[in-house]
């Protein structure tokens, strides 16, 4: 069975107060991958590319997951949560009915490298209370295999359970870190949405060579053999689609245009985080 359905590369973008990043999902060549709404990679050792950060801004109707490979980013929000995510750590924020937060670098030099993933919420959960959780690197399980380490950010692998468990939308997120020439196999998965992104080096997927910066859509029923000739890194994502209409306006993701207009109105009137 053909494993790779389509291949894509991200495009340069800016967000926040001018942070330079690569938009991988939710760009012209790759729109929503239900329930994954957006995937951004930020990677630079030039402070001018990230120092302005992401000042306070609103969200409603979805979940954000920030996963860091290098650097330090501070989170503060309107619910009173605060925390710093560092190399190897993750932060999960369920915006739901509304939250206003800021993500600002806690460094003035050095490499800042990580990802932000947006996941949709089902209509029945979009107006539920906001939540937030911080998971430092030592809370993310690692499975040591021959020549590589598999980090379980979400989902489970060989009895290891990732810390991010979202009842509204179960999903898997693995970080495969090859330290030398090695191979890893994965059978068919039950989830219909299945993605892989190479963030470092090169990875051979079955008979196709994938280079850094490439994302592929995978057939859920396909068996995978991943091989690396040296140091490399890959994210694997899998989830079941929600299958509902998506209406988006910037930081608001709902099901209808009327709900988007309500979100804008609520934000302008200072009622974003309430249900009345």
UniProtKB/TrEMBL annotation:
Fe cation binds at residues 57, 59, 101, 103. Residues 20-119 form the Pirin N-terminal domain. Its cofactor is Fe cation. The keyword rRNA-binding does not apply. Transmembrane segments: none annotated. Keywords: Iron, Metal-binding. Binds 1 Fe cation per subunit. It holds the Pfam family Pirin_C. Residues 174-272 form the Pirin C-terminal domain. InterPro entries: Pirin, Pirin_C_dom, Pirin_N_dom, RmlC-like_jellyroll, RmlC_Cupin_sf. GO terms for molecular function: metal ion binding. The keyword Iron applies. Belongs to the pirin family. This is Pirin family protein. It comes from Pseudidiomarina aquimaris.
């Amino acid at each position: 069975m053909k494993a790779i359905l389509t291949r894509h590369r991200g495009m340069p973008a800016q967000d926040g107060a001018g942070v330079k990043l690569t938009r991988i999902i939710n760009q012209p060549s790759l729109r929503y991958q239900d329930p994954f709404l957006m995937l951004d990679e930020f990677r630079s050792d030039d402070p001018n590319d990230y120092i302005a950060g992401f000042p306070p801004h609103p969200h409603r109707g979805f979940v954000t997951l920030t996963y860091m490979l290098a650097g330090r980013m501070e989170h503060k929000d309107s619910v009173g949560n605060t925390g710093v995510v560092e190399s190897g750590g993750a932060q999960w924020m369920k915006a739901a009915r509304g939250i206003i937060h800021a993500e600002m670098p806690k460094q003035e030099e050095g490499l800042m490298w990580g990802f932000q993933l947006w996941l949709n919420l089902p209509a029945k959960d979009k107006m539920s209370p906001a939540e937030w959780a911080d998971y430092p690197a030592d809370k993310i399980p690692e499975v040591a295999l021959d020549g590589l380490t598999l980090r379980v950010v979400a989902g489970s692998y060989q009895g290891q359970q990732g810390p991010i468990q979202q009842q509204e939308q179960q999903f898997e997120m693995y970080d495969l870190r090859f330290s030398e020439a090695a191979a890893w196999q994965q059978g068919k998965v039950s989830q219909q949405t299945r993605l892989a992104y190479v963030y470092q080096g090169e990875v051979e997927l079955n008979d196709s060579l994938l280079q850094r910066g490439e994302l592929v859509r995978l057939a859920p029923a396909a068996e995978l053999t991943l091989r690396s000739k040296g140091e490399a890194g890959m994210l694997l994502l899998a989830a079941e689609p929600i299958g509902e209409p998506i209406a988006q306006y910037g930081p608001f993701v709902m099901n209808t245009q009327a709900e988007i207009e309500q979100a804008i109105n609520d934000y302008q009137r200072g009622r974003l985080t309430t249900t009345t």
